[in-house]
Design goal:
single chain, about 130 residues, mainly alpha, about 80% helix, membrane
Length: about 130
């Protein structure tokens, strides 16, 4: 049960980087209010990385109990991104509600998922 629940949770959570990454690649910075050509280019590039992160997460799902190293790398990237976002908040740049929700997922939920996956991996190895 725990494996299936973790897989379902990860599948649901992968929709964010896949969906928002796709939107950012297709619409660029204009999607969130615009910017110059350099900002748009950088936004599209980062959106592609975000999409790739979603694909990496999807690749962990079928055998999540065996994917500890890959899953931890994916999670580390998410947490690092969240810490960068938190740095902006601490510097006085408070994003909208959706981004604050993302921040919570990045620096609170993601580490909890790592713990969940580690327990599952230990049980599978036993």
């Amino acid at each position: 049960m725990s494996k299936r629940l973790l897989q379902a949770t990860l599948l649901l959570l992968s929709l964010s980087p896949l969906g928002f990454g796709t939107m950012g690649m297709l619409r660029g910075a204009a999607w969130l209010g615009g910017g110059n050509a350099d900002l748009d280019s950088h936004f599209r590039y980062l959106s592609g990385i975000f999409f790739g992160l979603g694909l990496a997460l999807l690749s962990c799902i079928p055998r999540i109990e065996l994917m500890t190293v890959r899953f931890r790398w994916v999670a580390a990237l998410v947490v690092i991104g969240g810490l960068a976002r938190l740095g902006g908040v601490l510097a006085g740049s408070e994003p909208g509600r959706g981004h604050l929700l993302g921040l919570g997922l990045e620096i609170v939920v993601t580490p909890l998922l790592v713990v969940w996956q580690a327990r599952l991996a230990r049980r599978a190895a036993a």
